[in-house]
Design brief:
alpha+beta, OB fold (Dihydrolipoamide Acetyltransferase, E2P), binds adenosine monophosphate
Length: about 575
């Protein structure tokens, strides 16, 4: 089939903004496209050569494209640049220059789609030394045989800027009409797409085997499933009501979503945008190989940066260190991640996407070996809005974004933002602007690199009225190696067997101290906490106040006695001031 026919359709599509007209043009074209070309035509129309999860991408640089145009039409690069400045678009530039070169085209042979696709594929795949020259030659070769209109679209494709404005959903409409008669079967076709993320594959199956084959479509290890997303409501009551009075509440971890595909020893990781990010998470790869018991599995979870010594969750921004080509191993060591699993879509031959949440969670639990680094998301099933709120505050205090409430009976709605998952986030973002002075009342033994020293400290502030010290955070960040080295020695004179009588703590520390050593701590914000005892019940019944993402500022306040610490009154004032700043 001639490339000119495809280009003619693109021209028509470019000339309209109406989705229905676009669909009609596509239908007419898909129907006369030979089946073996159909997937290629679909990818090309999406502006690509493969589905997103295949890492072969077009997108050559402008400079290289200019060189190819100059070679194809036998004019200087300066000349090409001049036209490019006038036209402002490489496609239009190539079209214009192709028109000027009329007589040579007498020798040109017409391009066909398969050939164009193969050449573009070669261009996209060539890497390493000499690849730039090869890309340039392949493109100029194509241009020498192309008509002006063809040249226009070739340039746009090869630079990754086709931008016809056709949504995937329009292509799905057109495929359904072309091969399933009318739009009645649209849902089944879309579902097949959601399960495979591969429009070309759906197109080919539909054209070859009809709608029956599409209805029998199932997930397949190695092909990412388009992810289920959550709706949002603002109160626990509303969400519970929407979900029929009862829901499974899960912590909403603040990291990066990963879909893990395991086939025997082979593991692949995909992002929410279905890109293959296996190379960015060597640590997750190892954890998955080690901890997934199932032979074949597709499971999902959130990768979260953690402090490896304390297990504390760290802010999402730290994952940015993984967005690179080189030095991944170092980044993985410095900023390790834990995985919190929340769904199972396929386990050992069983497609679970239509199974209810409860069953999927059960299957998930059975198919993995849980460890500190690789475990199921915290979850609670309840019908009580108060319990939801408590669980919410716990999640926030631990560094999560909030909760996702899930329908117990809900299926996995691939590719949809439906009402079976509803998130509860905070409607505000607050900021702690000044540090506090807190006294150390306990410590937790360290793990990993911190075994032998303390992993984290339990810090408290002073309640003047009751003359006790109430806990405000567990702090493990901000300490240098020297700090950690000398802490046991600094604290040893104050070590005691039990919690000190003047310390009010609901947390169980591994080691307790007489309140003596004061340090300065800053955090992201003050939050309500169901576990810390500072200002307990003063701003909200059943809650104290805690510091979220606390860290040691590096300042030891040996000049201060424990009674000189920040007081509970001050903490309440700071919390209220924080709320006021949000309202303003
Ligand atoms: P949002 O991005 O605000 O629409 O929230 C949905 C995202 O929350 C998902 O794509 C996941 O990356 C993330 N997430 C964190 N924890 C969970 C969980 N327990 N269940 C589902 N999604 C979660």
């Amino acid at each position: 089939m001639r490339f000119a026919e495809l280009v003619e359709v693109y021209e028509k599509i470019e000339g309209t903004t109406k989705r229905l007209e676009m669909t009609d043009y596509l239908v007419e074209f898909f129907r006369r496209t030979p089946v073996e070309l159909l997937d290629k035509v679909v990818y090309m129309t999406q502006g690509k050569l493969y589905p997103d999860f295949v890492d072969v991408n077009l997108g050559i640089a402008e400079k290289l494209a200019v060189k190819a145009i100059s070679k194809a039409y036998g004019i200087s690069q300066d000349e090409v640049m001049k036209v490019l400045r006038e036209k402002g678009d490489l496609g239009l530039t190539a079209e214009e220059l192709a028109k000027r070169k009329t007589q040579a085209s007498l020798f040109a042979k017409p391009l066909d789609i398969a050939e164009v696709y193969d050449k573009l594929d070669k261009i996209a795949r060539s890497t390493g030394p000499g690849s730039q020259d090869l890309k340039m030659k392949l493109l100029s070769g194509l241009l020498s045989d192309a008509s002006p209109k063809e040249a226009k679209y070739l340039l746009r494709m090869v630079t990754g800027k086709l931008r016809l404005g056709i949504a995937d959903m329009t292509i799905l409409d057109a495929l359904t009409i072309s091969f399933a008669g009318d739009k009645g079967k649209r849902e089944a076709v879309e579902r097949a797409y959601n399960l495979t993320s591969d429009l070309g594959d759906v197109a080919k199956t539909l054209a070859n085997y009809g709608i029956d084959a599409i209805e029998k479509y199932h997930v397949k290890v190695g092909r990412p499933i388009r992810m289920m997303l959550a709706q949002r409501l603002s109160t626990a009551e509303e969400i519970l009501e929407k979900l029929g009075g009862r829901a499974a509440c899960e912590w909403k971890y603040d990291g990066e979503r990963v879909q893990i595909h395991k086939y025997n020893d082979e593991v692949t990781l995909f992002t929410r945008r279905l890109e293959n990010i296996t190379s960015q998470y060597p640590d997750l790869l190892e954890l998955s190989k080690k901890n997934i018991k199932a032979k074949e599995a597709i499971i999902e979870g959130e990768a979260v940066a953690v402090n490896p010594e304390t297990g504390e969750l760290l802010p999402f921004q730290l994952l940015m260190h993984r967005r690179r080509k080189y030095g991944i191993e170092e980044a993985a060591e410095k900023f390790p991640v834990n995985l919190f699993l929340f769904d199972a879509l396929y386990i050992d031959g069983r497609d679970l996407t239509q199974a209810p949440y409860i069953e999927r969670r059960e299957a998930l639990k059975k198919s993995v070996k849980e460890s500190d680094e690789f475990r199921l998301a915290e979850a609670l099933i309840t019908d009580d809005p108060k319990e939801v709120e408590e669980f919410f505050e716990k999640a926030i205090a631990a560094g999560c974004e909030g909760l996702i409430l899930k329908s117990e009976k809900g299926v996995y709605q691939a590719g949809a933002r439906g009402w079976l998952w509803i998130k509860l986030k905070r409607s505000y973002q607050s900021k702690m602007i000044e540090p506090i002075d807190a006294v150390i009342v306990g410590a937790f033994t360290g793990r990993g690199r911190r075994s032998g020293v303390y992993g984290a400290l339990l810090a408290a502030v002073y309640n003047r009225k009751r003359d006790v010290f109430t806990t405000i955070c567990k702090v493990g960040s901000g300490f240098t190696d020297e700090d950690l080295e000398k802490l046991p020695e600094m604290l040893s004179p104050y070590k005691i067997e039990h919690v000190h009588p003047r310390v009010d703590s609901q947390m169980e520390a591994d080691i307790w101290f007489t309140p003596a050593l004061v340090i300065e701590i800053i955090g992201d914000e003050l939050t309500l906490s169901p576990t810390h005892t500072s200002a307990y019940g003063e701003v909200k019944e059943g809650f104290g106040i805690a510091i979220r993402f606390p860290r040691f500022t590096g300042r030891w306040r040996q000049d201060k006695s424990p009674e000189d610490c920040t007081t509970v009154e001050e903490i309440v004032e700071m919390y209220k001031a924080q709320l006021k700043r949000i309202e303003e």
